[in-house]
UniProtKB/TrEMBL annotation:
It comes from Sesamum alatum. Belongs to the AB hydrolase superfamily. AB hydrolase 2 family. Residues 34-244 form the Phospholipase/carboxylesterase/thioesterase domain. The lineage of its organism: Eukaryota, Viridiplantae, Streptophyta, Embryophyta, Tracheophyta. It comes from the Eukaryota. GO terms for biological process: fatty acid metabolic process. Pfam families: Abhydrolase_2. GO terms for molecular function: carboxylic ester hydrolase activity; palmitoyl-(protein) hydrolase activity. Keywords: Fatty acid metabolism, Hydrolase, Lipid metabolism. GO terms for cellular component: cytoplasm. This is Carboxylesterase SOBER1-like. The keyword Lipid metabolism applies.
Length: 251
């Protein structure tokens, strides 16, 4: 093998050294990336009796504020179960409902509610484990899903961003409040209810906030005259503002 002249070897060594230095410097000084001030957030939406998660997904398209650009949405579907108020018919249901309309004094399926709460907590735990700050986790629900939202937020051991109840009710006995931790009492509740609701009576909604306030839980109650058992665009617009005001930045 013919050897290279010393001058050629030296030139090659210098050139190779410059190439390595350039590569190392290129990898050590990446282009600066402007940090996104909005941290990741999570909104879990719980549907009402007989409904499904996918049917509610269009709701997220209404939240157009830039604060929601890093928001992950989840719309789970309830398992199929026999429902007493519908003569035992099997349908998507988080827990049993004994009568319609639901009143402030309607019988409660507390055992079924607590079982469903465990499933909701597993979803919350998974999201927090993925890196979402608990203060940026919001649980929302309509009707039966609103009742489950209330129970899930109150019984979660950590402080969350908030819980939003739409046309819901208190699905448990007052003794459950003894299990609410000090951190859970700091989670704010937004409660919206139509005054013309004939499925979950307005009185059922009204009974919630005084019970929560007695337990030391902050609850903002909003009544909507003329609104039946449905969600209005005004309610969703208010929810958007309510969540925005509570989102934590990444800094």
């Amino acid at each position: 093998m013919k050897s290279l002249p010393a001058k050629s070897v030296a030139l090659f060594a210098v050139s190779f050294g410059i190439t390595i230095s350039f590569v190392l410097l290129h990898h050590q000084t990446p282009s600066p990336v402007k940090p996104d001030p909005m941290a990741r957030s999570f909104v879990l939406w719980l549907h009402g009796l007989g409904d499904s998660g996918p049917a509610n997904e269009p709701i997220k398209s209404l939240f157009t504020s830039p604060e929601f650009r890093n928001t992950k949405w989840s719309f789970p579907s309830a398992p199929s179960n026999p429902v007493s108020c519908n003569y035992g018919a099997v349908m998507p249901s988080w827990f049993d409902i004994h009568e319609i309309p639901v009143t402030a004094d309607s019988p409660k399926d507390e055992g079924g509610v607590l079982k469903a709460v465990q499933d909701v907590h597993a979803m919350i735990d998974k999201e927090i484990a993925a890196g979402t700050n608990p203060n940026n986790v919001f649980i929302c629900g309509f009707s039966q899903g609103g009742a489950l939202t209330l129970a899930s937020v109150l019984l979660y051991p950590k402080t969350l961003g908030g819980g939003a109840v739409f046309s819901g009710w208190v699905p448990f006995n007052s003794s459950i409040l003894e299990r609410v931790t000090a951190d859970a009492r700091k989670t704010p509740i937004l409660w919206s209810h139509g005054m013309a609701d004939r499925t979950v009576l307005f009185e059922a909604g009204q009974a919630g906030p005084p019970l929560l306030e007695k337990a030391g839980v902050s609850c903002e109650f909003k009544a909507y005259p003329g609104l039946g058992h449905s969600i209005s665009s005004e309610e969703l617009s208010n929810l958007e503002s309510w969540i925005k005001s509570r989102l934590q930045s990444s800094s």
